Amino acid sequence: MFCHCGSPNKYQWLDAKLEAKLAEVKRSSQGHSNFKSINSIIMRFPQFREELKDIRGVFEQYDEDSNGNIDYEELKKCLQKLQLHLSEEEIKDLFHSCDMDESKGIQFNEFIVLLCLIYLLKEPSSSNTTSTMGSLQLEATFDTVIEVFMFLDKSGSGKLNKNDVIKAMNEASPTERSPARITKTRFREMDWDRNGKVSFREFLFAFIHWVGIDTDEEMLTKSP
Q1: What's the CATH code of the domain at 100?
Q2: Which is deepest, 9, 47, 102, 105, by most CB within 10 Å?
Q3: Number of domains, the chain
Q4: Would residue 25 count as lying in a domain?
Q5: Cβ neighbours of residue 58 closer than 8 Å, sequence gap 6 or more
């Protein structure tokens, strides 16, 4: 599913920032979750798919030349508008860490991941009524996706390991236990650098695949 893994530490600063943010969110939630089992998450997949597809309007806004990709200069303008202040090196890392097929452009499914990372990295707004992403619904969707990750992150470390995922998939009751092969497959789909840990970036790419966003994109590109 993924063809650009890179070295394990290539985006260490980015993953470290994300882990710290996620651990902070986990602590502030005090263990509260709207999800009680993996099945309760799967049942939301159609809703997630529709909500994430709504990001296309945001994607087209920043795809200034309408070529179906967000290039590096377009990303810099996007970050400026969203008031996310990163160094040139950090912007490059953010860009390349989401350009999974190394096409030198961020496609729609990659842009969903990138936008969610931006949302998590951005400092909280001083205003409670203004959406930093331009859409309160979009932010609510990202908050729910983050909540899915935290449901799987039993240790609250900001990254997943196989034991976390197995525990989460078997949480509700013995009747809802996932077969071992399915659990292993799900974890393998997330752990694309095969280091036994799953970062938030890795989780996001797997998650949008599970809800069917990339399938919709393939159908769109193949249509006449």
Answers
A1: 1.10.238.10
A2: 105
A3: 1
A4: yes
A5: 111, 115, 133, 134, 135, 138
165 and 183 in contact (C-beta within 8 Å)? yes
Residue at 91 is within a domain: yes
44, part of any domain: yes
Q: How far apart are CA 187 and CA 79, in angstroms?
A: 31
Q: Which of 155, 70, 147, 151 is nearest to 114 (CA)?
A: 70
Helix segments in the chain, DSSP class H: 12-29, 38-42, 45-53, 56-62, 72-81, 88-98, 108-121, 136-152, 162-169, 180-190, 200-211, 213-222
Least Cα distance to 37 among 221, 214, 175, 169 occurs for 169
What is the pLDDT averaged over residues 176-193?
74
Tell me, yes or no, whether 4 lies in a domain.
no
Q: What is the pLDDT of residue 218?
A: 44
Model confidence band, residue 174 (pLDDT cutoffs 50, 70, 90) = low
More confident residue, 119 or 177: 119
Give residue 76's domain range: 12-222
Confidence at 92, pLDDT banded by 50, 70, 90 = confident
The residue count for the chain: 224
Q: pTM for the complete prediction?
A: 0.82
